[in-house]
Amino acid sequence: MKTSFLLAASTATILDFAAANALPNPQPYPPPHSNEAYSPPFYPSPWMDPNAPGWEQAYAQAKEFVSGLTLLEKVNLTTGVGWMGEKCVGNVGTVPRLGLRSLCMQDGPLGLRFNRYNSAFATGLTAAASWSRHLWVDRGTALGSEAKNKGVDVLLGPVAGPLGRNPNGGRNVEGFGNDPYLAGVALADTVTGIQNAGTVACAKHFLLNEQEHFRQVGEANGYGYPIKEALSSNVDDKTIHEVYGWPFQDAVKAGVGSIMCSYNQVNNSYACQNSKLLNGLLKEEYGFQGFVMSDWQAQHAGVSTAAAGLDMTMPGDTLFNTGASYFGSNLTLAVLNGTVPEWRIDDMVMRIMASFFKVGKSINNLVDTNFDSWTDGEFGYVQAAVNENWEKVNYGVDVRADHANHIREAGAKGTVILKNNGILPLNKPKFLTVIGEDAGSNPAGPNGCGDRGCDDGTLAMEWGSGTTNFPYLVTPDTAIQNQALQDGSRYESILNNYATSAIQSLVSQPEAIAIVFANSDSGEGYLHPDGNEGDRKNITLWKNGDDLIKTVAANNAKTIVVVHSTGPVILKDYAVHPNISAIVWAGTPGQESGNSLVDILYGKQSPGRTPFTWGPSLESYGVQVMTTPNNGNNAPQDDFTEGAFIDYRYFDKVAPGKPRSSDKAPTYEFGFGLSWSTFKFSNLQIQKNNAGPLNPTTGKTIAAPALGTFSKNLKDYGFPKNIRRIKEFIYPYLSSTSSGQAASGDSHYGQTAKQFLPAGATDGSPQPRSPSSGEPGGNRQLYDVIYTITATITNTGKVMDDAVPQLYLSHGGPNEPVRVLRGFDRIERIAPGQSVTFKADLTRRDISNWDTKTQQWVVTKFPKTVYVGSSSRDLPLSARLP
Ligand SMILES: *[C@@H]1O[C@H](CO)[C@@H](O)[C@H](O)[C@H]1NC(C)=O
Ligand SMILES: *[C@@H]1O[C@H](CO)[C@@H](O)[C@H](O)[C@H]1NC(C)=O
Ligand SMILES: *[C@@H]1O[C@H](CO)[C@@H](O)[C@H](O)[C@H]1NC(C)=O
Ligand SMILES: *[C@@H]1O[C@H](CO)[C@@H](O)[C@H](O)[C@H]1NC(C)=O
Ligand SMILES: *[C@@H]1O[C@H](CO)[C@@H](O)[C@H](O)[C@H]1NC(C)=O
Ligand SMILES: *[C@@H]1O[C@H](CO)[C@@H](O)[C@H](O)[C@H]1NC(C)=O
Question: Fibronectin type III-like domain location, by residue (predicted)?
């Protein structure tokens, strides 16, 4: 089947769900049910700071450009043209007068979706498993350069939300593991790479979008859950700061140009109109200078969202293909009638254009968008939604450069060896057998299922919008066979999981080594392979994988288990099975899958460490995806009562020091991974630096600048005669200039800002700074290095190898996690006998806790201990912080 057909099919699915989604009410304010979690107001929406470090020049360039724009042009830049209204998954209106083409937003976090001649990178989770900062920057740079060369301006990634609270959360795999420190460093490094390459990065999804179930009303209704509002993640202020917000704060510090607000509600206020989150946390406290764009159809109101800090609506229409928008002409009108202050629309456009200039773009020097999302053909309709403007749309520009080398290396270095009784590395084995569908190809081809929405053949990425088309996919079967032929090994593979007797007789032959493959897949909620509605139903293996492994291991004492998965699976029995000689987690490695795996199986590369805990059961994690609405037809209420205690923080709390065999302890703990050599840790040294006390930020912002003037006469905003109106396309013009009511098409028209916006929302006077704010990333002194920790690592084995030293901190105090990650490095190629120094800087933020009373990061009085070692549970060195 042609991809275009499948594409259309999956689009139709989305549309069906969308149709079921009646236009929801704007955010109730104050909330109707006083017993439900509630989000406090934060207004006005902070405007850009001309002196924000790293943004000064971009601000000046944007100011010059924006000052010359008309109101209609400004609105154009904030509003998507509608679903399938242009070539990218999202496009805004143009500024033809000044030669600015439509800005293109394209998925996603592991490469360019709906594309050809692009690379398919490893998922975030597999990238995270390398614990390698230079590989993260390289990955980002390669992603950013592919985007730029296709004419994409904003790449919709990287991801740190979901963070991975729920072990079976469908999209955890798009992010960098569930530790906020690890995810924060990886998120920031990826942003740096993408933006250095000249593309605006979009850190997403902000915030607390920890599961697919109930994230969108229409989608949930399509599955038969009759909810009327999306799920609300109810989370306390301390946990938001210390866990879920943390990585985004790092991204802001790294200068990220855009952030996508998520589908879910937070404390019963939609994330794209939650003023506490967008205005208070992101723009004021974190000092975010870029723009907030909505997730696709995550905007549920107009004026209120603008006031709450939303800067761009995507894809622009209220729901896909309604032809109506909460922004577009409604925003024009709202500025004209004074509901949205002029400074707010100016700030929205300033943020968009400053991000554009910050990554080095210029108006007249943009690569034309040379691909089309909606067809594989050379020609297509530019407005695919309505079959308008047939032209050449796909130019087949090959943007892959030499990225395959990076993908192969990163895939290998992100593969984790969980068990090895000495069988690895393989060395010219006499007879190798490979068992399992997950080693082979999808009979329909690597891109045979739209948005990778099936689990056929080897698993190398998740399903959903965070996917790409593979340019090719090297399967494990192919790559291992190639190596076997080179070595003169005998090689046989059986790729049918149900060919039990053939498998039994093959693997029981003398001298056979059996590599058995199985997987577990997940993805985005609009697809539901095998009944998994985005999130995983369970954390066992798919397609009879567990029986397959048991069959092989019962007949072969040299069994190697290889798992491809989007998160943890249950390995408890395999960890202690005498015939299972090795367990390898190959993650979801992208296009070079088989080659990356061979590089590990044969010891040509050094492996990675697990960025999440492998628990003995789904229940052992303490939390999991909510799959039954718990609030009638009202918004399901997901109370994050566990606070910071997710993943290893939870296991360490309930089963400290328990052995692997325990029902409560991890089978393999966070940070764990075997390698080819052994390392000794010694000589822990702590140096205290005199950074002085933290000075809370005080004073006020500048007044909100208004850039330019405009006519207040409705008649000047009608539809121009020289533009042919395209159906469903979203324009900034008023469809009627007779009255505001007629132009808006909104039966509630006429409400003033006073009537439906909270106090202060339109106030453009200088505003007080919050104590923890200051610069992008927050108060500059949060990043003062308070302690420098060093330790010596000696390779005590026989081969050159990489070490991944990890530093954990105990904050002390009765309600804190036993310890949390606060430093790591991947030190490459340490020779046998060689000693190297591991160095970690502990910043003020690293050693602080969030104090909800003073709204500041505070170093508590409790004694603090640092630990250094090779995983969250193997920590030979420790010392009190002086
Ligand atoms: C959600 O409610 C909790 C509990 O009142 C509060 O601590 C937190 O700051 C709120 N967060 C948001 C974003 O409203
Ligand atoms: C807004 O964008 C549309 C679509 O690209 C374009 O046709 C129109 O001319 C733009 N309007 C203005 C005022 O620039
Ligand atoms: C303006 O927004 C309202 C919803 O608030 C919507 O019903 C209406 O269609 C929009 N108007 C236009 C012209 O898009
Ligand atoms: C101004 O326009 C907005 C957007 O259409 C509308 O929601 C609001 O009710 C209008 N207010 C007044 C006072 O006309
Ligand atoms: C877990 O889900 C997978 C995928 O849907 C399925 O193949 C498997 O049978 C399920 N496992 C159990 C124990 O139900
Ligand atoms: C291990 O494999 C051998 C065949 O080599 C088999 O006889 C034995 O029963 C297996 N052990 C287990 C525990 O399955």
Answer: 803-872
Distance CA(473)–CA(470), nearest Å, equals 6
Test site for ligand 5: of 438, 537, 549, most ligand atoms within 8 A of the Cβ = 537
The residue among 645, 729, 809 whose CA lies nearest residue 243 is 645
Average pLDDT over residues 36-60: 97
For ligand 2, whether the C-beta of 69 sits within 6 Å is no
Residue type, 869: G
323, β-bridge pairs: none
Kind and range of the H or E element at 357? helix 342-358
Provide the CATH topology of domain 681-697+782-880. Answer: Immunoglobulin-like (2.60.40)
The per-residue DSSP string of 553-622 comes to HHH-SSEEEEEEESS----HHHHH-TTEEEEEEEE---TTHHHHHHHHHTTSS-----SS-B-SSSGGGS
Domain boundaries, the chain: 5-36+71-395+705-719+730-743, 403-612, 681-697+782-880
Query: 394 CA distance to ligand 5 centroid (A)?
Result: 40
Q: What is the pLDDT of residue 34?
A: 63
Tens digit of each residue's pLDDT (9 = 90 or more) over 185-220: 999 999 999 999 999 999 999 999 999 999 999 999
DSSP assignments along 685-698, one per residue: EEEE----------
- Measured CA to CA in angstroms, residue 635 lies from 217, 234, 240, 272, 434 at distances of 9, 11, 20, 16, 48
Contacts of 819 (CB under 8 A, 6+ apart): 652, 808, 809, 810, 865, 867, 872, 875
- At the topology level, CATH places domain 403-612 in Rossmann fold (3.40.50)
Catalytic member of 295, 535, 638, 825 = 295
pLDDT of residue 25: 36
> Per-residue pLDDT for 21 more than 50?
no
Strand 865-869 and strand 258-261: the pairing is: unpaired
Ligand 3 mean position to 334 CA, how many Å? 11
Which class would CATH give 5-36+71-395+705-719+730-743? alpha beta
Q: What is the identity of the amino acid at 491?
A: Y
Q: Which residues pair with 830 in a beta bridge?
A: 801
For ligand 5, whether the C-beta of 544 sits within 6 Å is: no
| Token couple for 390 | 């047939």
Kind and range of the H or E element at 200?
A: strand 200-206
442 to each of 83, 445, 563, how far by Cα in Å? 30, 5, 17
3-class DSSP assignment, residue 760: coil
Residue 295 is among the residues annotated as catalytic for this protein: yes
CA gap 111, 144 in Å, rounded: 9
Residue 723 CB neighbours (<10 A):
11
**What is the whole-number distance in angstroms between the Cα of residue 719 and the centre of ligand 1?**
44
3-state DSSP call for residue 219? helix
What percent of the chain shows pLDDT beyond 90?
Answer: 93
Tell which residue, 388, 386, 395, has the closest CA to residue 367.
395
Q: Percentage of the chain surpassing pLDDT 70?
A: 96
Q: Cβ(733) to ligand 3 under 6 A?
A: no
DSSP result, 804-852: --EEEEE--STTS-S-EEEEE--EEEEPTT-EEEEEEEEEHHHH-EEET
**What is the model's pTM?**
0.96
- Residue 427 pLDDT more than 90? yes
Pairwise CA distance, residues 347 & 282, whole Å: 15
Residues with CB under 6 A from ligand 4: 302-303, 330, 333-334, 337, 339, 740, 744, 746, 749-752
pLDDT digits (tens, 9 = 90+) for 738-747: 999 999 988 8
pLDDT tens-place string over residues 683-725: 999 999 999 999 999 999 999 999 988 999 999 999 999 999 9
- The rounded distance, in Å, linking the Cα atoms of 655 and 252 is 35
Question: What does DSSP say about strands 200-206 and 258-261: parallel, antiparallel, or unpaired?
Answer: parallel
Query: Which atom of ligand 6 is closest in space to residue 579's alpha carbon?
Result: 1
